[in-house]
Amino acid sequence: MAIMENIQNSQVVRVYRQGWLAWLGAHKTAFDLAQDGVEKLVNSREQLVEELVEKGEAVEDMAQDNFGKVRGMIEPRFNEVSEKVSAARSKVFARSTEASTDRFEELSTEVAKLAKSVSALSRKVNTVKKPVAKKAAPKRKAAVKATAKKAAPAKAATTPATETKTAA
Predict the structure, then answer these.
(1) Which of 1-10, 16-25, 40-49, 109-118 shows the lowest per-residue confidence on average (mean pLDDT)?
(2) Which whole number is the average pLDDT over 141-153?
(3) CA–CA separation, 35 vs 42, rounded Å?
(4) pLDDT of the residue at 28
(5) CA 58 remoteness from chain centre
(6) What does the CA dihedral 48, 53, 55, 60 come to, rounded to 10 degrees?
(7) Are 46 and 40 contacting, i.e. CB atoms less than 8 angstroms apart?
(8) How far apart are CA 49 and CA 44, in angstroms?
(9) What phi, psi does 159 have (nearest 5°)?
(10) Least confident of 13-22, 27-36, 84-93
(11) pLDDT range class, residue 168, cuts 50, 70, 90
(12) Cα 64–69–73 angle (5° rounding)?
C-alpha cells in the first residue's frame, strides 16, 4: 500500500488532477454562460421578435421604394420603345392584300410590255442579219456547181479497171 500512497501523492498525479478539475471548471463556466444567455433570450424573446419584425419592415419599405424608383425610370422608356415598335409594325404591314395584289398586277403589265418590246427588237435584229447571209451563199453554190460539171466528163473518160483499183 505504500506504493499506492506514493503514487497518489506524487507530483504527476497532482498536476493531472488539477488539469482535470480545470477542465471540469471550464465546462461548468461555459454551461453557466450558455444558461444565462438562454435565460436572457427566453426573457427577451418578445423584444427580439419585435426588433426583427421592425428590421424586416424597414428592408421591405426600402425594397418597395427602390422598386418604385426603378419602375419610374423604366416604364417611360418601355412605353416609348413599345410605341416605336408599333409604329414600325404598322408601316411594314400597312399595305393590305388588295394593295399588294394591285401592285402585282401593275408589275405583271409592265413585264408583258417589256416582253413585247424585246420580241419586237429581236425581230428587227434578225431581219437585218438574214439578207446579208442569203446574198453571199448563192454565188458560192453556183461556182461549186460549175466546177462540178467540168470535172464530171473527166471521170467518164476513166476505164472501169482504174475505178476498181481506186475503189480498193
Answers:
(1) 1-10
(2) 56
(3) 10
(4) 94
(5) 44
(6) 170
(7) no
(8) 9
(9) -90, 160
(10) 84-93
(11) very low
(12) 145
Residue with cell string 435584229: 125
For 95-116, the pLDDT digits (tens) are: 666 677 778 888 899 999 999 9
Residue whose C-alpha cell reads 461548468 in the numeric block: 28
Residue type, 166: T
More confident site: 36 or 91: 36
> Can you state the angle between helices 45-92 and 11-43, rounded to 10 degrees?
60
The dihedral through the CA atoms of 22, 24, 27, 31 has a sign that is: negative
What is the C-alpha separation between 9 and 27, in angstroms, rounded? 26
Local structure of residue 96 (DSSP, 8 states): -
The yes-or-no verdict on residue 6 having pLDDT over 70 is yes
Specify the pTM. 0.30
* Helix boundaries (H) for the chain: 2-8, 11-43, 45-92, 97-156, 160-167
What residues have CB less than 8 Å from 48, skipping those under 6 apart?
A: 41
Gap between the Cα atoms of 153 and 46, Å rounded: 145
d(CA 126, CA 132): 11
